[in-house]
Amino acid sequence: MNFKLFTLISVLLSVFLVSSSQSVRISGFVRDSINGEKIVGAYILSSDNKNGTVSDNEGYFSVSLLPGSIDLTVSYIGYSSKQISFTSKKDTSIFVTLIQGHQLDEVKIVSSKSESTRFRNFGVTDIPIKQIKLSPAMLGEVDILKTIQMLPGVNSTWAGFSGLIVRGGNQDQNLILIDDIPLYSYSHFYGLFSVINESAIQSVRFMKGAMPARYGGRLSSIVDITLKEGNKYKHQREIGIGLMSSSIIMEGPIKNKTTYSLAARRSMIDLFMLPYNLIAKKPRTGYYFGDLSGKVTHNISPRDKLTISFFTSKDKYYNVAKSLEYTNNGISGTMSRDEGYKWGNNIISAKWNKILRPSLTFSSSLYVSKFYLDRHSYDKFKEGENTYRSELSFTSLINDFGTRTDWQFIPKSSNRLYFGLSSTLHRFKPGQSVFYDKNIETGETISESFGNKPIDLVESVGYFEFDSKVSRFFSYNIGIRLTSLNSDNGNFLFPEPRLSGTIIAIPNTSLTFFYLKSNQYFHLLRSSILELPTDLWIPSNRNLPPERAYQYGFEAEYKLNEAYSFSYNTYYKEMNNLVLYKEGSSINSPVNGWEEKVDLGSGNAYGSEFFLHKKIGKLNGWLSYTLSWSKRKFENINNGIEFYSSFDKRHEFSLTSNYQLNQNFKLGVNWIFNTGAPYSFPLYYREPISIMSHQGPSGRLLFIPQSQIFETKNGSRMPPYHRLDLGITYTKQLRKHPQMEQTFSATVFNAYNRKNTYYRGIISGTVYNASLFGILPSISYKLNY
Fold it and tell me: How many CB atoms neighbour CB 395 within 10 A?
């Protein structure tokens, strides 16, 4: 297999390196005319529709054309297309600026596979930030991940949450990248909102199915987020106020060659409650979340750029109770308690981009990241002159130190070659607890540390990817990703082949197939549907090998006209080495090592996706329907019998629509319907009872707890889930200050107050349903100047 793959790659390279000497290369950058920001995913197309390309993550493009008279069309969502005509007999560099036009109100999501005559980014879907901003927001918090959930094959972990479930996978099988750096925790407020502030983002790319070899490390999907570089021409500010949080965004130039962008957000509820708690002398209890992101970009020359990016997010719950008085053996004393937990991410990276020549670009980066999870409980006692304390804390950490180098080579033909290397040192502390206690009677001190030992893991990756547009009727992508893992707990070497191709057999119709193998080297042990600080990331080792998936599928897409397109997808995914807690185990189980708490199993997922999309016009949006199955099998769970995944939802339907009422008002509508999620409901239930035991002369009262017997795991289903979200946005410039623009947004989450069940249980023999969210109206205000 490896020999055949090597031979195929060698042949392709031979063809790849033979290019026409009669062509000239046109290269350059595509940027926004107002702020100078790079435009990622812009299309550059020749007048004969035979040659074209797409701008990369730096807004750079390179295309080979016949010398002489050259006519190019440059276009991107929300911008007026630009026609460029000139005469050239040699390689030429150009700088293209696009003007935001009326198309800005005609929002669409474009998959590059639908552009049949243009160069493709296989498996990549570009999501305009404008679409995200127009989507109805829960409690005023605009959320990138909730917009992605509206696409076919994608669902939420639970009602209204930001976690992604893609094509029957698990939540941890999705990789979120911010400027190429992985995020281990991407949700605020127990999973209700993502940590990513939409105002700080330049571009979002979503990949499922045919993922390029440049990306890896997860089984289901990739969300590639690029932060703004900042306005090149003027300083700009945006202040936002909502029910849940407030934010501020600043950007602008620093001298001639340097720009900056900074975005900060913080929740406000704990601040509003603080005066009340102080006046009423209530315990200081609260919860808050916040995030901060920024980027500084320095253009060393037209061909060299240095970028420094940083990102931090934090969630914290705290409860500081007021002192309680007590008496012990005639001695008065006081007791106070401080408990809480926090979790978040810290990231900083430096990246150098260089254009070595028009056909060859290079980037190199260094980064440091940290994911942390802390829980603590401190009790303090004071009796007379003596002070004692008792402490219990739990800590889980992941520290990453990484470097990455990427190359892109574009010869004088419709081909591209990507290759690169990366190496990351992962330092895991999967879970360590510290206990300290000083006896109030004897003064004896106990101090213990227990839990899992720290683990160092070196991950090294090399990849090779080749794109070729053979003709206007056929193009393909072939690649391989090779990953090496080295640690004291085991050494692994994993090849991951990738293959996809598109055929244009009928006008306006494309047929695409793909196959890929992927591996995942970290596992997330989930203990709740919420994003609680009880979830634990653990690395692969000899006993817990990396998760593995094989996926293949097919897509047919038909472009009805410039406004409408329809696509059909079908896929099958096989997964191995999946991880679940053993029945009865959790993070708090008395077993010391997490390896003893988990079971390994397998799974499969398959289904079909239908997508009808209206791209332009005052009324635009899409209809999405997914029919899917997702199953799991573990030897020691459910008696080894296959069962449905907790995220198996047979039917998923979504409607997303935006309407431009007039120049100032925009309306947004989302409607979602899902089959109810599987859950385990007891076949037999007995109430707790107390009985009299007649052993001994006087007998004694025995308490027998409740008893439940389950026939099968996830053998029942919740009621269907559905909801309607509405939103209206009003945007207008201030009369006295036309340079200032204000935006009012009003949204209603779950407009008809559907009581969607998230938990079903039994109390006193009666079955009850619990729901999380009813109708949730919200408002927000933004001022941009």
Answer: 15
Which of the 8 DSSP states describes residue 672?
E
Alpha-helical runs (H) found in 627-738: none
Q: Cα(557)–Cα(564) distance, rounded to whole angstroms?
A: 11
How far apart are the C-alpha atoms of 122 and 207, rounded to whole Å? 9
Task: Give the C-alpha separation, 147 to 48, whole Å.
Answer: 36
Q: Are 196 and 186 in contact (CB under 8 A)?
A: yes
H and E: helices and strands count for the chain = 4, 52
DSSP 452: P
Q: Using an 8 Å Cβ cutoff, are 631 and 605 in contact?
A: yes
Beta strands in 66-186 (DSSP E): 68-75, 82-88, 92-98, 110-111, 124-126, 154-156, 164-166, 174-178, 181-183
Helix (H, G, I), strand (E, B) or coil at 140: coil
Query: Over 626-640, what HEC string results?
Result: EEEEEEEEECCCHHH
Pick from 51, 25, 39: nearest CA to 77: 39
pLDDT digit string, tens, across residues 691-749: 555 454 444 555 555 556 666 888 889 999 999 999 999 999 888 888 899 999 999 99
Residue 650 CB contacts under 8 Å (≥ 6 apart), including other chains: 627, 628, 629, 675
User: pLDDT per residue over 53-104, tens digit each?
Assistant: 888 888 888 888 888 888 888 888 778 888 888 888 888 888 898 987 644 3
Q: Which residues pair with 721 in a beta bridge?
A: 674
The owner of tokens 């916040």 is 290
User: Within 10 A of 129 (CB to CB), how many other CB atoms are there?
Assistant: 21
Strand partners, 193: 188
Kindly tell me the burial class for residue 251, based on how many C-beta atoms sit within 10 Å of its own C-beta (0-12, 13-18, 19 or more): buried
- Angstrom distance (rounded) from CA 123 to CA 369: 28
Q: Considering only CA atoms, give the Rg of the chain.
A: 29
Residue 23 backbone dihedrals phi, psi, to 5 degrees: -95, 160
Tell me the longest C-alpha to C-alpha distance in the chain: 111
DSSP annotation string for 497-557: EEEEEEEEEETTEEEEEEEEEEEE-EEEE--SSS--TT-EEEE--SSSPPEEEEEEEEEEE
3-state secondary structure 319-359: EECCCEEEEECCEEEEEEEEEEEEEEEEEEEEEEEEEEECC
* Cα separation values, 731 from 134, 725, 749, Å: 12, 20, 21
Q: Can you give the pTM of this predicted structure? A: 0.87
CB contact set of 468 (below 8 Å; sequence gap of 6+) = 12, 15, 16, 414, 415, 475, 476, 477
Residues 6+ apart with CB under 8 A from 735: none
Residue 526 structure tokens? 């989930």
Category of 505 on φ-ψ map: left (φ > 0), alpha (ψ -120 to 50) or beta: alpha
User: Are 99 and 80 a contacting pair, CB within 8 Å?
Assistant: yes
Please write the tens of the pLDDT for every residue from 226-260. Answer: 999 999 999 999 999 988 899 999 999 998 899 99
Burial environment of residue 600 by CB neighbours within 10 A (0 to 12, 13 to 18, 19 or more): middle
CB 131 within 8 A of CB 138: no
Q: Compute the distance between CA of residue 87 and CA of residue 106 in angstroms, rounded to an integer.
A: 34
Q: List, in sequence order, the alpha helices (H) in 25-181.
A: 129-134, 144-148
**Cα–Cα dist 577/544, whole Å:** 7
Q: Hey, what amino acid is at 326? A: Y
Q: How confident is the model over 573-584, as a mean pLDDT?
A: 86
- In this predicted model, what pLDDT tens digit does every residue of 442-491 receive, in sequence order? 666 766 666 667 889 999 999 999 988 888 789 899 999 999 998 877 78
Q: Could you tell me if 197 and 178 are in contact, meaning their C-beta atoms sit under 8 angstroms apart?
A: no
